[in-house]
Design a protein that fits this description.
Radius of gyration: 24 Å
Helix content: over 70%
Distance between the termini: 37 Å
Shape: globular
Strand content: under 5%
Number of strands: 0
Length: 460
């Protein structure tokens, strides 16, 4: 007789592990911050005194040593591993998405629908943000003494961001910069990621319109292989996500606590409230009436991508998770999801557009700059364009905010006022960006065939 086998216990889903890491990091960090443990040094823990010859770290707070020596490097290593694979993933996903459509008419139809939904949702986001910041006027209630302290604390970093904004292209130059004169250079810079995407689109179009030959077919299958290898490697890296998320949240909580969020509470509440309304109301209505997709099913399916977006504050770093969620949880056609999500990681930043609009008006209120309706409309339009052109990396929108401030006569150095709370808001708006990418993919998928021959795995 054979002994009955015990069924293997199902592994805990990754998003639960990420949630646990998020919660533990946040709670432990807040405990350390509010109990004063972040000020303890090895001297306090047993040594009689800090004497000459001791290691340099011996007189520094223990938590500071842990943050700078363990948690921050580990979090940065995780992001670096993701970003290392983003260029091959982005290129191969976009080329594969274009070639799987099979003809230029499908590309044009899906591309125009993606662009239209992106502009529509970004416009609604910015209008919602501007209405809320005009109604609640958070910039009018900031304590001048507190504001001056925050400005002085962030002066050096704010100046660096302002200088970055002065080097950014605008208007016609921004459009021209989408066409790269050096593909390798475009691939090496987050600021030029749109140029790399343009090259990938053209490369995919070239494969589609070329006569099918053994060489072209080998090239196409090679790029599909590059995509599969990139996803496999990222799948290995993603296993580190719960630990990296713990590090991110511990660092944030132990260094800042809730103090900064409370001190700029009105501004944070307006931005966060507008982001929540846009996510739960605008997306739900768009999914229901445009995409014919159940909002409940959608939000249940994308929770892992939302957690990853909040933790990393990067649309690009969340792209692999978003691609997998679109396939496994939402059941979207792969050729559509690969195209829309890859484009959307940079070009559909409607949460960022909302943040930029609210921040510009907030700073205008603080500095007493009266903006006319025409100027606010200009701010709205530039925010929509800025959302499309903003790099999908942490804090990538700050130079755009400084640029818009300078355009409407608001001192751009004022961004120093919000630098302390920017990371929390960056995490929040990235959730909206990634959710919007997946929402647009679901809407674009309406009316598209569920599968094509290229969507299905090859038979042995």
């Amino acid at each position: 007789m054979t002994e009955p086998t015990t069924p293997a216990r199902a592994a805990m889903p990754l998003h639960w592990k990420i949630g646990i890491g998020f919660f533990l990091g946040l709670v432990l960090g807040l405990i350390v911050y509010y109990t004063g443990l972040h000020g303890w040094t090895p001297v306090d823990l047993g040594s009689a005194a800090c004497v000459a010859g001791e290691p340099a770290w011996y007189c520094r707070p223990v938590v500071e040593v842990i943050v700078h020596g363990i948690t921050r490097p580990f979090g940065q290593l995780f992001l670096s591993l993701i970003f290392m694979l983003i260029v091959p993933l982005l290129f191969s996903a976009l080329v594969t998405g274009v070639t799987e459509m099979g003809d230029i008419r499908s590309l044009g139809r899906i591309g125009w629908r993606t662009l239209g939904y992106t502009i529509l949702l970004s416009g609604i986001a910015v209008v919602l943000g501007l209405v809320m910041v005009d109604v609640f006027e958070p910039g009018a209630g900031v304590d001048p003494v507190l504001a001056q302290q925050l400005l002085s604390e962030g002066a050096e970093r704010a100046q660096a961001i302002v200088q970055d904004s002065q080097g950014q292209a605008s208007g016609l130059d921004m459009l021209l910069s989408i066409v790269p004169d050096n593909v390798v250079g475009a691939a090496s810079s987050n600021a030029s990621i749109l140029a790399l995407m343009f090259f990938a689109l053209m490369f995919g179009v070239g494969i589609v319109v070329s006569k099918t030959t053994p060489a072209i077919e080998t090239l196409r299958r090679g790029i599909e292989g590059l995509f599969e290898v990139s996803m496999t490697l990222i799948g290995l890296v993603i296993k580190l996500a719960p630990y990296a998320v713990f590090c991110f949240m511990f660092n944030l909580a132990v260094l800042f606590g809730w103090e900064l969020l409370v001190r700029l509470g009105a501004y944070v509440a307006v931005v966060f409230g507008a982001l929540v309304l846009h996510t739960l109301v605008t997306y739900s209505l768009a999914l229901k009436f445009i995409g014919g997709y159940s909002p409940v099913r959608f939000f249940k399916g994308v929770q892992e991508a939302m957690l990853m977006a909040f933790s990393t504050a990067s649309s690009n770093a969340t792209l692999p998770t978003a691609l997998r969620v679109a396939d496994e949880e939402l059941g979207l056609p792969r050729r559509v999801s690969r195209f829309v999500l890859t484009i959307g990681a940079t070009a559909n930043q409607n949460g960022t557009a909302l943040f930029e609009g609210v921040t510009v008006i907030f700073l205008a209120q603080f500095f007493g700059v009266e903006l006319t309706i025409g100027q606010q409309v200009m701010v709205m339009l530039v925010c929509i364009l800025g959302g499309i052109g903003t790099a999908g990396v942490p804090s990538g929108s700050l130079p755009v905010v400084a640029l818009i401030c300078a355009m409407v006569g608001v001192p751009p150095e004022g961004i120093g006022l919000i630098l302390g709370v920017n990371h929390f808001l960056d995490m929040s708006r990235t959730v909206v960006n990634v959710t919007g990418d997946l929402g647009i993919a679901a809407m674009v998928s309406k009316g598209e065939p569920e599968t094509t021959a290229l969507d299905e795995p090859a038979s042995a």
